[in-house]
Amino acid sequence: MTTIRITKEFRFEAAHALRGYDGPCRSIHGHSYELSVTVSGTPLADKGSPKAGMVMDFGDLKKIIKKNIIDTVDHALILNKDYPVEEVQKIKEVFCNVIWVDYQPTSENMLVDFSQKIMNLLPDGVRLHSLRLRETATSFAEWVAEDNG
Question: Phi, psi at residue 95, to the nearest 5°?
Fold first, then answer.
């Protein structure tokens, strides 16, 4: 059977800061992120199914990504939970939607996090092939399954 890849694109707004970074991104700043999710599989051969010919219904993929990624990060401030307690308190007083993560919230690390969340949510026979997270018009990071064994 033929393996096909399908891609669904998403957009979200989020802010982050790179604690300890030696450039301007150490300050809180935002991006209009674009996330591309590519999955692969064999199109369903069951002619009696309403999903016949599909690797996966785009609507089902959208529900998974929206619920488990987009609804969480959209309009959030994403920070490494390494901040000292006094700074955490100040941040909590000013920002109402803060996501504390165990990593430096770079696009690269966000993709690793997203990939781990998505992989186990896909239907049988559908594999996460790649993720691309565009941070600016000219900069993006990409996660590819075959590179990650």
Answer: -115, 135
CATH code of the domain occupying 4-148: 3.30.479.10
- Residues 93-125 have pLDDT tens digits of 999 999 999 999 999 999 999 999 999 999 999
Q: Which residues are catalytic?
A: 25, 75, 135
- Closest by CA position to 84, among listed 92, 76, 72: 92
Query: Is residue 10 within 8 Å of residue 61, measured between CB atoms?
Result: no
pTM exceeding the 0.85 threshold for the entire prediction: yes
Q: Which two tokens mark 94?
A: 């000013």
Q: CA nearest 105: which of 144, 141, 71, 137? A: 141
The full set of domain ranges for the chain reads 4-148
Under 8 Å between Cβ of 127 and 40: yes
